[in-house]
Amino acid sequence: MDQQGIRKVRDHFLEHFQTSPIVVFAPGRINLIGEHTDYNLGYVLPAAIDKGIVMALQQSKRPISMATALDMEETHSFHLNSLKPISNGRWQNYIMGVVDEIQKKGKKLGPFNMVFTGDIPPGAGLSSSAALENALVLGLNELFQLGLTKKEMVYISLAAENNFVGVQCGIMDQYASMFGQKDCALFLDCKTLESEAIPILSNAFDVLLLDTKVTHSLADSAYNDRREVCFKVAQQMGVPSLRDLNLQTLLENKTQFSKDVFQKALFILEENKRVIDAVAALKNNDLRTFGSLLFQSHAGLQNQYKVSCEELDFLVSLAHKYEAVLGARMMGGGFGGCTINLVAKGHSASFIKKISQAYSKAFNRSLTPIVVAIGSGATIQ
Ligand code: GLA
After folding, report:
1. Which pTM value belongs to this model?
2. How far apart are CA 67 and CA 263, in angstroms?
3. Pocket test for ligand 1, best of 32, 158, 172 (most atoms within 8 A of CB)
4. How far is CA 142 from CA 99, 137, 304, in A?
5. How confident is the model over 57-81, as pLDDT tens digits?
6. Percentage of the residues of the chain whose pLDDT score is greater than 70
7. What domains can be seen in the chain, in order of their start residue?
8. Distance 13 CA to ligand 1 centre (A)
9. Cα torsion 106, 148, 190, 240: sign
């Protein structure tokens, strides 16, 4: 987010509330590898990006709180003691959810005014919702001196999404947006919530996202269904989560499960291993191995975990044919959104041109390329 966004929220705030606000930035995220492993308490390798949400906020003397989404030209007013999710509400529910979770922890808030804008491309699966939650919890922590740690704030953002918005996502997005480090990916253990920053050699390749511009209606129900399948396998095997199941035990118990369920559980175990291998490859500057793990991850998401779609498969299989593309796979929950492509420096423009032409020919819709830079996590400006 550039200075322009910061100026925009600050000016708007000053004009409407005649008082100077604090300004907070929280980024969106990408995920290099480790998909659907977060809610299985496994490993992920996400990174914060240079695009995100900028928010201006200050305490209010009136009893009511007011939140304004500048880009949508919408304002929502609410009382701190009567918070209810709005049916078909969007950004409003993330805001009230964070407030609700802070209060549930026994922390005292007062009324506040808030204005935000953002530059995360909508619908691309870059976690604008986690950025919004994190910006608010960080801002309120500062404004009301709540004394929350960053980890507590991550859990508040996640709980807002799980309990108030009703999306059963894992912790990856909120964690990456809060703890991201410039030019590094975070090797995060979702069980212990410990992470290690891994430099991602961004002078060797571009991180190119190709936005399919599709969202299939299956997305939400399939996400919950996959969670359920994983939890049931863990339960049946007597472990708290698939993270605690080893490959040997799963293989020995193969006949207890249908072929489909077995493959899904196997995918999670293999994907966890791929994250560990990918981190080792990055540390050894072995980009070919790193890239091939991304292709393997996609194959598993497509054939075993079954959360891909025609458009994503098309892009990844085409990317595989380009020497300059080190690795590619679908990113995020699936059934639409983006593929992530690691493209050797100097080759992105020609790759984008060719793959865009092929995509519009095949699907009669245009592909949106987004080259992202790896930025830092949420901060008070
Ligand atoms: C979505 C969720 C994340 C994670 C991914 C899949 O992006 O928000 O928590 O589960 O899907 O890896």
Report:
1. 0.96
2. 45
3. 172
4. 14, 9, 45
5. 999 999 999 999 999 999 999 999 9
6. 100
7. 3-200 (3.30.230.10), 205-371 (3.30.70.890)
8. 33
9. negative
